[in-house]
Amino acid sequence: MARKCVFTGKRPNVANKVSHSNRKAKKRQLPNLQSRRLWWEEGNRWIRVRLSTRALRTIDKKGLSAFAAEQDIDLARYAI
Question: Cα dist. 25→16, 39, 41, 61 in Å?
């Protein structure tokens, strides 16, 4: 499974790890992804998604269906 948020599309980032002597080495910054089971009111069933904590906060604020419609995501694809 890809390390990608279903709703926001967040992916790992590549950055430089800088030592005290200013030597640089590549490192990956992974998004804070959580596997969650969410209740979908309109579909009257559970969906299982892997999403970022930022997306979880937005779902709390706007609601699952509204946020999915805004991001053009078909929730039936993730139904359990």
Answer: 5, 42, 47, 39
Cα–Cα separations (whole angstroms), residue 31 to 12, 39, 69, 70: 6, 23, 23, 21
Residue with tokens 């030592």: 19
**pLDDT tens sequence across 24-48:** 999 999 999 999 999 999 999 999 9
Q: What residue has token string 């359990």?
A: 80
Number of independent structural domains in the chain: 1
Domain for residue 19, yes or no? no
Domain that holds residue 73: 32-80
